[in-house]
Amino acid sequence: MAEYKKIEQRKKLWEANVLGKVLARFPETRQSFATGSALPLERVYFPEPCDEDHYLENLGFPGEYPFTRGVQPTMYRGRLWTMRQYAGFGTAEESNQRYKFLLEQGQTGLSIAFDLPTQIGYDSDDPLAEGEVGKVGVAIDTLKDMEILFAGIPLDKVSTSMTINAPAAILLAMYIALADKQGVPRDKLQGTIQNDILKEYIARGTYIFPPAPSMRLIHNIFAYCSTEVPNWNTISISGYHIREAGSTAVQEVAFTLADGIEYVRSAIQVGLKVDEFAGRLSFFFNAHNDLFEEVAKFRAARRIWARVMKEKFQARKPASQMLRFHTQTGGSTLTAQQPDNNVVRVTLQALAAVLGGTQSLHTNSREEALALPAEDSVRIALRTQQVIAYESGVTGTVDPLAGSYFVEALTDRVEAEVWAYLDKIEELGGMVRAIEKGYVQKEIQDAAYRTQRQIEAGEQVVVGVNRFTVSEPPPQNLLRVDPALREVQVKKLAEVRKNRNAGRLGETLAALKEGARSPEANLMPLILDCVRAYASLGEICGLLRSEFGEHRETVIL
Amino acid sequence: MAVKKIRILIAKPGLDGHDRGAKYVARALKDAGYEVIYTGIRQTPEAIVKTAIQEDVDFIGLSLLSGAHKELFPRVVELLKDNGAEDITVMGGGIIPGEDIPFLKDKGIQAVFTPGTPIQAVIDFIESRP
Amino acid sequence: MDLVQGVLESRPRAIARAISLVEDEDPEREPLIDALFPHTGRARVWGVTGSSGVGKSTLVDRLIARERRAGGRVAVVCVDPSSPFSGGALLGDRLRMQEHAADPEVFIRSMASRGHLGGVSQATGDAVRVLDAASYDTILVETIGVGQAEIEVVELSDLVLLILMPGLGDEIQVMKAGIMEIGDLFVVNKSDLDGADRLKSEIDYVLGLKNHDPGEENNPVLLVSARRDEGIDELVQASCAWQERLRACGALQERRRKRLEGELRRIFSRKLHALLEVKIELSQKLAAWSQALAAGKATPYALINEELKTFLKERGNP
What we know:
The complex is a heterotrimer of chains A (about 550), B (about 130) and C (about 325). The two termini of chain B are about 20 Å apart. Helix content of chain B is about 40%, strand content about 20%. Chain B has helices spanning about 20-30, 45-55, 70-80, 100-105, 120-130, and strands spanning about 5-10, 35-40, 60-65, 90-95, 110-115. The radius of gyration of chain B is 13 Å and the shape is globular. Chain C has one domain (about 5-245): Rossmann fold, CATH 3.40.50. Chain C contains 13 helices and eight strands. Chain C has a seven-stranded parallel sheet with strand order 4-2-5-1-6-7-8, with helices on both faces. In chain C, helix 9 (about 195-210) links the parallel strand 7 (about 185-190) and strand 8. In chain C, helix 2 runs antiparallel to helix 5. The chains are: A alpha/beta (about 550), B alpha/beta (about 130), C alpha/beta (about 325). At the A-B interface, helix 4 and helix 18 of A face helix 1 and helix 3 of B.
């Protein structure tokens, strides 16, 4: 490769005459500098020789392969990212109120948080649900709860993202059944189900069934939606949680894309055509502290995925090659100490996501480390996005950081490291195998441990926690979920059970059982029948549990 | 002649699957010289107590981020008492609002470690017990 | 609480406390073990060993399930290494068995090696005794097979299941003489992976070489998948049959006798050493002796022999 000879020469002179003199009197504060993920940082970045072909191959144009510069040609000049705040708690009634509040305040898409029993397929009256009902999200037991959740919200006017994984098919079925009731045509439905079981095994822990039947449910959803609900994002392949579990930025991208590869490959193996479902795959990333590393990460992710889809899977349609993603600012970076500082952190993280070209964004509220957000905190979080969108000026041009010597070098570096991981995972036999062997979990854990040690040793500064601390009284007025809520929900469920048609219920569950036993059957229509008959989530999942079995943790310590 | 080792059970009660913190604490306590039994996620209070008794632990560390601490932590303490094992010290950590700590202490949870607490604080607590 | 009584009544707290006593090498353990000894010998003790990652814990979990289904009471001791640096240990084997945590007829205990080279220590043997006295029908001892520990787990058990898996380079490992002597049954886990059948053939082959006697039966080699719960019934059957075979030809009793012999030797040796340490004030003397050696004023064997001669003379021995 050519060198910029003149610059090289002058650099040497600069190092000797200018830099050297300063270093002699003021050494740098450290031996070496690195990004948040330990990628080495040069003191100064300089232009690399670049010919047109290199530019066209690696950067190109926004909205065109390899999509490094963005998935649309106009990006935010055409339409801002969707401001989509994750919310949900307590009963469907309370959550419905919060959604209406957020929509009034200018939020442009809904994002539903479900409680843990719902996420793990247990009804609110299940003994294992003790203490958990309505705490981290809304409790949904039957279609009735869904109807309340969206009361007064027309499904053709909003796009809805549901953070639901193992029982995603059931919640999606409820949403579709509700749309049918509202008279909304299915092709008008817009939204996403997270539906990413692999990352549950890796980092999040809300799995139910073992990998094989879980993958089957995912394929059933891909196939069903491709014809029935064509504008729905059938999966949100997630790196957010992997990062929250302590991974580096490189690992976040690598393991997410490896999960994606596994989903695509397995779907093709059961006979789906890549261009029929790949356009509706979406991704979900973290926006962490190191601003430029995050931007580089997003750009590298787009480039790598485009190449994977085109070269590995022969996807032809641009829609199949483009990596569209939602971002959430990193919850684990927020502190319980001096919570107002978190507003500042979230601002920088949100900025990184926007400079990185996200399609949709959730900003955390300041009391993240303490409780679910109160109304005013959520409003500030939303306003953060609105200030960036309307006041900061960064939305006026596409991919503003492109061409920065630093950002391009970092993008290339992240890409190279991600490919190394992808190769390693292929060697191990693919992502499911790698997870079974505990390889992925160990990588993440080791990174998490290193980071925590550095923080404890004071090498990594967390403002307000290991430096710049104050003694402060405990925060007041945190949001509380009323524990009496469980009783309310249990009563509601009992009502539904009393009023539904037992005969019809029995028929639909029997049909589902039969379907579960026939590997060729698509379970979506059968689940839809069950939810329409007001089968509860726990009843459906209980049935599937007995057919499919339960997954047990692979823990590597 | 062997020295008596302090044994600690680290467990996650309830349905919460976020184990990054619990795993870190388990590993760090091992590095501090304790014997740590780690039982993973989705443990019922019953399983936790039975395990604690079989392992004859001195401490139980409960980690929970889902807000169910006011129900599940006292349940563990209660079951320990029912099984004649109230001499086992219970400590908790996770997403626990400061205003809940007096309630938990009242119910027999002897220490609560909230986000940002350095591991040394946990070690100091352990060493302070007779 | 009277520990002996509590153990014999199979009360979990008492059993756990008794095991702690032996782990901590508390002097109280001696009368405890002596009191429990007459009540031991009933349980069958199976060792489960193999490299890290082969799936021992998952397999043990399946074995527990089988035993329970057959109505038996099961105890498990999982031994893991202590950190040589901190002295602490992270014991996570029981995680894969937690489904049985609430079953009153199952007792699981995690033990750290606490500096014992092999990992399986005197304490483990005594813990097994406690569980035997507490009327558990089957006691499974799970350890990581690393050299010394493998030998010790053999001494400790009636029967050893050596667990292997394809893809770990075990094809080479199999050839190592030590391994073939250790297992009574050889279990190729993760039978769904490539190379499982090949590994089984290799083990069969090497076992064939080992057993020169044409009449002698080869040790069983089985293919299982613990994760998928396949091949476990056959494994249990083969293990029971092998144990019966050992019992019928007297090998089991011989093994147990040898175990007791070894144990007595160890106890005797340790106590003698401890006694002498006190008598000779060994610890104080060592500093002076090593200085003498370093200064070139003495040589190792001559010095020790002289000291011993003096010691024996003082006791009226020639």
